[in-house]
Amino acid sequence: MSNNPVLTFVLMDPPYENARSTSALRLIHQAVSKGIHINVFAYEGAVSLAFEKQSAHANPIHNRSLEEEDHPTTKQWIASIFEKSKETGVKIDWVQCGFCVDERGVFEFSPNLRRNGPGELLKFIENSDNVLVIPTR
Fold first, then answer.
1. b/e per residue 87-105 (b: at least 16 CB within 10 A)
2. Residue (of 73, 82, 78) closest to 53 by Cα position
């Protein structure tokens, strides 16, 4: 690995419930854009951020079709972060808490991610320059 800094993000919130999840994804994207290596430990509802069965939707309340609504999914956002990492040459290690995946039944997630336990978070913390925990309320 290079001399680039390493940041660890700890995410807890599920997608679409509040701005914490989207703010975290924005921060991660910016860090990757700046050449910072990233670790993500997703647990609790955050394991749903990369759920492969997410789908975009129309907005009948505002009379917009699927195409007009152009609603991104968090799984697409995460995929774009991994694409950006290829451009910038940084490493992303994204771990889905296995207990949380099991409890929520969100077994299908991006192959870029891996499943592991809370001990992996300790390793992330020990090997990071800084850690940002984005807790639930």
1. eeebebbbbbbbebbeeee
2. 73
Comparison of pLDDT for 96 and 3, the residue scoring more: 96
Task: Report the C-alpha gap between 130 and 110 in whole angstroms.
Answer: 25
**For the segment 58-97, what is each residue's pLDDT rounded down to a tens digit?**
677 778 776 776 667 889 999 999 999 999 999 999 999 9
- What is the helix (H) or strand (E) element at residue 97, kind and residue range? strand 92-97
At residue 107, φ and ψ (nearest 5 deg) are -75, -25
What's the rounded Cα separation, in Å, for the pair 29 and 23? 10
* Nearby residues of 24 by Cβ (< 8 Å), 6 or more positions away: 9, 11, 132, 134
Which pTM value belongs to this model?
0.88
Average pLDDT over residues 107-112: 88
User: ∠ CA(124), CA(130), CA(133), 5° rounding?
Assistant: 75
Residue 16: DSSP 8-state? T
